[in-house]
Design brief:
The protein has 149 residues and is mostly helical. It contains 6 helices and 2 strands, in the order ααββαααα. The chain has 2 domains: 39 residues; 84 residues, no CATH class. Helix 5 packs across helix 6. It is elongated and about 100 Å long.
């Protein structure tokens, strides 16, 4: 009889231990869900804080494009399909930009830009012109020093 009471007592203690463990685990899960799943990523918060037309230091914040006449036409028509970074990295002359726009219209379902095409191309040629840089530029005004052994 005494041994039976000891076994029952040990079983009750184990139940309390497991119950406490499960309760604390559930509290931790609820805490992490409330804390981390309800927070928005920093990028999403940053984008909320930036209006679509905000320009700082001559740069359109949402796209990174330079402020100038025709910027909003570029933002409206070009960034609807692809990133502004694709525009910035592709520096072309007027003929190549027009050829690229024709190609996008023929193969990528770009709509007719009408009078906006000239505005867009002028903006791109002016702000992202072709430049032939080749290798890195020569170093100038360098103060050389001797290495001591």
């Amino acid at each position: 009889m005494e041994q039976r009471l000891k076994i029952q007592s040990a079983a009750r203690r184990n139940r309390w231990k497991w119950g406490g463990f499960i309760f604390v685990s559930l509290l931790m899960i609820v805490f992490f869900v409330v804390t981390f799943l309800n927070e928005e990523p920093e990028e999403a918060l940053d984008k909320k804080d930036v209006s679509n037309d905000e320009i700082v230091d001559g740069i359109h914040l949402r796209t990174g494009l330079k402020e100038d006449e025709g910027l909003m036409a570029v933002v409206t028509h070009c960034t609807a399909c692809h990133s502004a970074q694709l525009i910035i990295q592709n520096r072309m002359n007027k003929e190549r930009w027009n050829a690229t726009i024709r190609w996008m219209q023929e193969t990528q379902n770009l709509w007719d830009l009408g009078a906006n095409q000239e505005v867009i191309v002028n903006y791109l040629v002016k702000n992202y012109p072709v430049y032939d840089k080749g290798r890195r530029e020569n170093l100038e005004n360098i103060q050389w020093y001797n290495l001591s052994e």
